[in-house]
């Protein structure tokens, strides 16, 4: 007996980008000490006040089914947050709660695409982007944001990709994982203009919107003519240190939210109700909690810059937000993949090779800023020293 071809066809290539993570987990399981800078997960637990709210809701009996687009009060709170942060009037009817941001990405593409369509995504990209698009039965195609442009995607590249493929949708991410880039206002305006010109749906992944160190985050949904063609992906994972709670959302036009609700009824059947109550409690704590969770990543970005300053082999790529820094190691002559595996062998330090996020990030490393301030400088100095040795040996 053979399984269907839908799941095998979700891989855009023979690799899934997580090979270094699997190696790291195997070493840790074998008792090897490894400094793990691969996964973007806040190095602090969910706030106790949020956990107390989850506990109270569960013990209070909120443990039954909760199908549909989410608890009404949570959808209102999300809509109010979006209105406040972006200036775009948003109501509960524009919101569906999902089991995490990844489920929101899946639902958005399922609603917008069908077999025979093409969905675009900007690369460097989170590894699940192409497979999420492929899971709908549609084809996927990338739009490269080049290192030479500070990883800011160009409108003309988007338009060329759409015209070459007949694509119906475009997926972007700012602040960006893996690069840490915050798209400039001109970039966002160019993306919006390209979408209007070529009649593209825009899916804007904004899960890092509370982590901006330079400039400001501009949601493309706030630009003229974009609210009716933009879906915004949000999540509690990064902004509120609730990765395991699996709570995200889509904000978009009412007909899209209604269609996504039909999909949810036939897949997830909603989100755990006591987790939704926890999210409501977290949102009620306001920007103070968001700033508290973001603060370590702001500090650690500065630590990375100080540690790398003056190196001939390593330099920090443009990084203005999110919980990552991209290191350019092209001067070593190695690919990011070769360097990352060599670093793990020699120093037992695990970082993500840029190639895990697409060819546009080749020769780079993604460092997750999830190591305590006291330990991060040593790890960075060892990475730089390893790069310097590699460059010396190759020169």
UniProtKB/TrEMBL annotation:
UniProt keyword annotations, A-Z: Aminotransferase, Pyridoxal phosphate, Transferase
CDD domains: AAT_like
UniProt xrefs under SUPFAM superfamilies: PLP-dependent transferases
GO molecular function terms noted in the UniProt entry: transaminase activity
EC top class named in words: transferase
Record's catalysed reaction(s): L-aspartate + 2-oxoglutarate = oxaloacetate + L-glutamate
Gene3D superfamilies per record: Aspartate Aminotransferase, domain 1, Type I PLP-dependent aspartate aminotransferase-like (Major domain)
UniProt record similarity statement: Belongs to the class-I pyridoxal-phosphate-dependent aminotransferase family.
Protein name per UniProt: Aminotransferase
Native organism: Thioclava kandeliae
């Amino acid at each position: 007996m053979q399984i269907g071809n839908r799941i095998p066809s979700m891989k855009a290539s023979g690799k899934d980008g997580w090979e270094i993570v699997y190696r790291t987990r195997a070493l840790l399981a074998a008792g090897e000490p490894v400094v793990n800078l691969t996964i973007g997960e806040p190095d602090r637990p969910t706030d106790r006040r949020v956990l107390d709210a989850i506990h109270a809701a569960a013990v209070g009996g909120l443990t039954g089914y909760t199908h549909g687009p989410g608890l009404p009060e949570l959808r209102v709170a999300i809509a109010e947050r979006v209105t406040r942060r972006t200036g775009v009037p948003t109501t509960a009817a524009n919101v569906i709660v999902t089991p995490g941001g990844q489920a929101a990405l899946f639902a958005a593409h399922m609603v917008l695409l069908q077999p025979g369509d093409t969905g675009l995504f900007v690369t460097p990209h989170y590894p699940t982007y192409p497979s999420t698009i492929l899971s709908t039965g549609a084809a996927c195609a990338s739009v490269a944001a080049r290192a030479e442009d500070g990883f800011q995607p160009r409108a003309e590249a988007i338009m060329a990709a759409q015209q070459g493929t007949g694509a119906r949708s475009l997926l972007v991410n700012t602040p960006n994982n893996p690069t840490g880039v915050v798209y400039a206002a001109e970039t966002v305006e160019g993306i919006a203009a390209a979408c209007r010109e070529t009649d593209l749906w825009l899916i804007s992944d904004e899960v890092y919107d509370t982590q901006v160190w330079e400039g400001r985050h501009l949601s493309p949904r706030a630009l003229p003519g974009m609210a009716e063609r933009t879906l915004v992906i949000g999540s509690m994972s990064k902004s509120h240190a609730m990765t395991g709670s699996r709570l995200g959302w889509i904000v978009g036009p009412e007909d899209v939210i209604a269609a996504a609700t039909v999909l949810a009824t036939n897949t997830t059947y909603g989100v755990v109700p006591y987790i939704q109550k926890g999210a409501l409690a977290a949102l009620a704590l306001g920007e103070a909690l968001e700033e508290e969770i973001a603060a370590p990543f702001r500090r650690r970005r500065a630590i990375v810059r100080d540690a790398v300053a003056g190196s001939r082999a390593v330099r920090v790529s443009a990084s203005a937000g999110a919980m990552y820094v991209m290191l350019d190691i092209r001067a070593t002559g190695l690919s990011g993949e070769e360097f990352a595996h060599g670093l793990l062998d020699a120093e037992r330090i695990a970082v993500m090779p840029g190639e895990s996020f697409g060819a546009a990030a080749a020769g780079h490393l993604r460092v997750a800023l999830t190591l305590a301030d006291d330990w991060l400088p040593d790890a960075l100095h060892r990475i730089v020293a390893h790069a310097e040795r590699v460059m010396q040996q190759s020169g």
